Structure formats: C-alpha cells, structure tokens
Amino acid sequence: MQPMRKHYLHFSTRQTTGIIILLAIVVLVFSLPYFSKQAPTDLQVLTLSNTALQMDDVNMEKSMPDDAPLRKALHLFYFDPNTIDSTGMVQMGLRQKLIQTILHYRNKGGKFFKPEDIRKIWGLFPEEANAMLPFIQIQSLQNAAGNKPTQTVLAFHSVELNQADVQAFRQIPGISPALAYGIVHYREKLEGFVQTVQLKQVPGFPDSLYATIEPYIYINTQQIPKININRAEPFALLHHPFIPENVAKAILILRKQQGSFQSVADLQKIPFLNAETYRQISAFCTVE
Q1: How much of the chain, in percent, has pLDDT values that exceed 70?
Q2: In CATH terms, are 159-222 and 227-286 the same topology?
Q3: What is the pTM of this model?
Q4: Tens digits of per-residue pLDDT, 182-191?
Q5: Which CATH code is given to the segment(s) 74-155?
Q6: What is the mean pLDDT of the chain?
Q7: Which CATH architecture has domain 227-286?
Q8: Rounded to whole angstroms, how far apart are CA atoms 91 and 77?
C-alpha cells in the first residue's frame, strides 16, 4: 500500500513544471481585478481627464454671469450720446446691458455735455471710450450752471490722401499724431498713393481703422501720381499696387544694366511682360 501511495504522489519534472505554470496563471487571473483597480489604463485615465475638463467647462459657464461682457470690435460712426436710440447703439455694436445703462442714465435726466462724459457710463471699457471719443458730436446744450452752450463738434471734411498734410490727417477720427506722421512718411516713400487701401500698409495702421475712415478719404483720380521708372527707389517700385513684383525687379535690373529708360515703351523689352500687363502699368509710369 505504501509503495502505491508514493507512486501517485510522484510527478515527473515535466508534470511539475506544468503544475507550477498552471498555478501561476490561476494566481494572475485572480489578481487582475485588484491591479486594475489600483492602476487604471491609459484609456481610462484619458476618459477621466476629458470628463474632468468637461466638468470644469460646465462649472465655468455656471460661474460666468449671463451678461458677462464680451469685448467685440465696435462699428463706429458719428453720433450724439444724448439722442442716439437703442437701434443705433445696437448697430454700433454696444452690449445690451451697456445700452440699458445709457438709456437709464438719460431717462433719469443725465446729460452728456462733452465727449469725455461718455467715460462716466458704468460698464464701458476704457479702450471702447477711447475709440468712441472721436466720433461723438454733441449738439449745443444749455449748461445749468452758467447757461453756456457746450462746444459743438464740427463736421468733418473728406481728406485727399496725396494732398493732406499731417494736420489734416490728425483731424480724421481715430488717427493719432504719430500715425499721421507715419502716413505722410510712407506716402513720400511710395511717391504718392494710388489706392486708398494702401493706407493698410502704413506701419502701425490698425486693420479695423480702415473700414471706419474709408468714407472720409479719397484720391483725386485726375491727379494720381505717376512713378518715375528712372528715379524711383526700389521700395516705391516694389510696393506699387499696379506693378507686379517680378516686373518691378526687372525694371531695377534693366535700369542698372542699360541705364535710363528713354520712354515708358522701353518696358516692353522685359521678356515676360505681356501686352495686357504693359497696358495696365504704363498708365502709371513716366520717365520724366
């Protein structure tokens, strides 16, 4: 009996190895739930992170008041803050709460005696007030203290870009003294403006300002300056709106190699200049 029991309890090396592997697999299977709870997968971490971000967004939206001001660009035009109605203020781009504040101020008897008075409106951002000031035109009001009318803002006259001096540019709403000097300096480098849109190329000129002042600027089409292809600086040629850059470079090369052009027709020596392009640019060129 004893030998038979020993026979059943004896395992070969191969069987022993198999039993050990089987036990290891059983232990691993039962351990997986424990380790999965302790260390979430990358996918679980990503899902949890996204959920947390979404919750933060929801909490932020809940914490932000419904009338939280959004700083949008204003669409400015001339107006009198004492008489402009809500429709006009909406067209200007003012926030609804700000419109209500202005109307409430006026309904309570409040008056704007000078443009700077707009700053006392609660909720108006300083940069918004600065942008609005040049466009405020207040009709004469009787001052209760001394019965003296306030100064009426004078009507603004259109400006011809090639004739205006620094002082004239400074009268355009939104143009600072520094920008006025910059416009004149840039005009000299160009040897004159050909299109009003060239103002956008002036260093420091805000893109949003052009749409505002466009109704008040113009170029006399009878006196559009022609560019002298013999004397023009490279900057003027390369920045001319009607002369393609490759043509401008060719003009500079020919001028250096062959000397002065005898006539505008000499531009036709440029090999790649077709008849249509020549016709377009020749009207803006001169050799005199």
Answers
A1: 74
A2: yes
A3: 0.45
A4: 999 999 988 8
A5: 1.10.150
A6: 77
A7: Orthogonal Bundle (1.10)
A8: 9
Are 270 and 250 a contacting pair, CB within 8 Å?
yes
Assess whether pLDDT exceeds 60 at residue 154.
Answer: no
CA count, 13 A, side-chain hemisphere, 286 = 7
According to CATH, what is the number of the domain 159-222?
A: 1.10.150.320
What is the mean pLDDT of the segment spanning 214-242? 88
Instruction: Give domain limits for the chain.
Output: 74-155, 159-222, 227-286
Q: Which residue has the tokens 């395992």?
A: 11
| Segment 73-131, tens digit of pLDDT | 777 777 888 888 888 788 788 889 888 999 988 998 888 888 888 888 888 888 888 88
Place of tokens 């992170």: 49
In the prediction, which pLDDT does 94 show? 87
Does residue 56 surpass a pLDDT of 50? no
